[in-house]
Amino acid sequence: MKYPLVRNGSLPQRMSFSSTNQELVAHILRWGVGQLSANGPPPATSTPWDITAQVHETAVVNYGEAFLSNYTLTDENLARMLKERTGEVPAELQPSEDKDPWSITFADFVPVRAKFQDNIVSLAIRGKRFTRGDQKINDLIEIAAAYRVELTPNGSKLLRVGDVTVDYVGRKGPQGAQQVTFKTFLRRKFEALFKPEFENEGMELTGKASRIGDKLQTKHAVFQNAWATVGMNSVPKTPKAAKPAAVNKEFVDPNDRAANLPPALPAVTGENSASPPLL
């Protein structure tokens, strides 16, 4: 995780660590020239989850500029990333010979932003250049979606609120045919990316971390006043099913007459134990 930050010049300006006999606490603060950060401490938490993460919405902007500023994302790169991270690619976003190749070049400033309020997460990306086949457009466009955060018995889910919006930033007056066509095209693509619902049943634990459980599941989620607070607990390991008892199959020689005789009748005692008369 450290080396991508070093490569992009995005190491946090301030990191501090402290611990007690019950917890480990890490504080990370990062800002760049002209960037903002949280204007105060995060909200207090009282319930002791296994892991508590608190993120200010400006962190999305600050790290977004470090990694996405002036970056060109093609349809093929997007499909590959979705396949690697989720295991599937929506049909609308699958490149093919009968579809125009397309790309987005992210804006230099605020290429991605987030807003946390009333348990609603508002996400937006901004591009400064778009291509579709032989066509291109050099307008600043913002594509946005909002999601409501809900807890479930097995974790959490995001439910989209309303439709995906596509807007030209700072552009006034009527739009030409090319602008309308690109706007419709982008809405169709990003409606497939910003799906109506995302469900998260936990993060799988591997290696040494698996000693505490099978996964981490969200048990608390509050998005309010620009802060996101998420509490996660480990899920105990699922007991392995017991193996069925082994059946002892002894080999019996078909030529062994003694071994193939039926079992002996039980002995008879008492007054009925006399031998039957001989015929």
Structure at a glance:
The protein is α+β, with helices and mostly antiparallel strands and 279 residues long.
Structure commentary:
The structure is a single chain. It is built from 4 helices and 14 strands. With 279 residues, it is of the alpha+beta class. The strands form 3 sheets. Strands 4, 5, 6, 7, 8, 9, 10 and 11 form an 8-stranded antiparallel sheet that branches. A 4-stranded antiparallel sheet has the order 3-14-13-12.
Order of helices and strands: HEEEHEHEEEEEEHEEEE
Task: Name the overall outline.
Answer: globular
In terms of per-residue confidence, which ranges show pLDDT below 50 for 5 or more consecutive residues?
267-279
Q: Please, how many helices? A: 4
Task: Specify the structural class.
Answer: alpha+beta
Number of strands: 14
Q: Report the span from N to C terminus.
A: 97 Å
- Radius of gyration in whole Å, from Cα? 32 Å
Please outline the major beta sheet.
Answer: 8 strands, antiparallel
